[in-house]
Description:
- It is a single chain.
- The radius of gyration is 23 Å and the shape is globular.
- The protein has 406 residues and is an all-alpha fold.
- Helix 15 (284-300) packs parallel to helix 17 (332-342).
- The protein is 57% helix and 2% strand.
- Coenzyme A (COA) is lined by residues 236, 240, 270-277, 325, 328, 331-333.
Amino acid sequence: MAAETNTKDIKAGKSEEIKTKNTGLRGIKVADTKISDVDGENGVLIYRGYRIEELARYSTFEETAYLLLYDMLPSVEQLKEFSRGLAESRRLPGFVLDSMKQIPRRSLPMDVLQAAIPLLAMADPVLTAETRDANLAMAVRLIARVAAVVAAWQRIREGLEPLPSDDALSHAGDFLWQLSGAKPDPETAKDLDTALVLHADHSFNASTFACREVVSTQAHMYAGVAAGVGALSGSLHGGANEQVMKMLLSLQGEKDIAGWVRHQLDSGRKIMGMGHAVYKTIDPRASFLKEMGRRLGVKLGQEQWHRMLTQIEETAVSELAKRGKTTIKPNVDFYSAPVYHLMGIPHDLMTSVFAVARIAGWTAHIIEEKFGDAQQKPALYRPSSEYIGNYCGRSGCVYTPVRERK
Length: 406
Ligand SMILES: CC(C)(COP(=O)(O)OP(=O)(O)OC[C@H]1O[C@@H](n2cnc3c(N)ncnc32)[C@H](O)[C@@H]1OP(=O)(O)O)[C@@H](O)C(=O)NCCC(=O)NCCS
């Protein structure tokens, strides 16, 4: 009887108890972390104590990755060595490239990236050495190679040979070179570098939590990262930037953008790239990318993207406010989409570029989880759930063999 009542209640959307459980862990603190903090009320993001604005203006992706992994800013020598380690690790093992060449060319880039992670694990000489040094070495290889895999896949699917990396370039610059086969101008390489800094970490977001959850079982770092890539691929997470670009392309030539936004909201549809599970005000990363997109648009004679996004933002914010929703503002994906577009990054690769940055945060979180850096006793994640399914008492339902079932 209990089961029947529950099922009816769910269908009718009546059960308050059931509704409140399915909150996606909003506001529930599941662990301590020393890596980053998001103050959603005030729009403040810090990595290891440093504000994202400072890091975006003055740091580099390499330095930020070091900061996330080692909990301190590097000296000149330490940064040189770390950058050298990244450059040396960019070359992909031959069998990984050979395997990638067998993959159907129409495959989704995030699927290819996710498939490549365990292949990279098979080439790692310290895979199962559960020491901090071994995990730091794996982190460096992963940061270098996630970028290399994304770039190599672009070449392979175009029927081209992957390019060797150019050690004289920064991580961001080398990624653009390996992707396009053209040496990037320093300004574009610096813009991508800044975008990578902005995307490098974001506390317990869905993909980072997935990484941490997996390695809490003492699985190795690559197993955690593969889970993170899967989580990031969804359109409510990293996949939103590609959706934003699709929205912009579909609106090209649209005279009544405000009317389109109203229609979307009236039909109960979301505006991609807006809203955030934590930020209740402007996402500080979005402000940076907005200005970057405006500047790149002016430079390349493509100001329409910035114009359209500004109009969508203004209309959506005011229309949502009329509907009593005053906290839905642009997030990082809203303004990163045109930035990547203007850098020549194919639209279906945009989420993979997010991964090129987020791998720094994922690996830092995996190390924190494994070695209990923020909490003395790292424990296997094992939440509980309320069983609301079929129930016939403790002795169980009567099992009828298949042939006797009607
Ligand atoms: C990111 C996101 C999942 C956060 O979700 P959340 O905090 O759990 O909020 P919810 O999805 O429960 O939304 C709360 C309300 O705001 C509305 N809302 C949230 N984001 C919206 C958006 N982008 N456009 C229109 N309405 C939105 C929801 O429809 C919901 O309305 P309701 O209460 O009438 O049902 C959500 O804002 C979203 O789906 N955004 C679009 C996808 C995106 O950009 N993702 C990238 C995140 S970095």
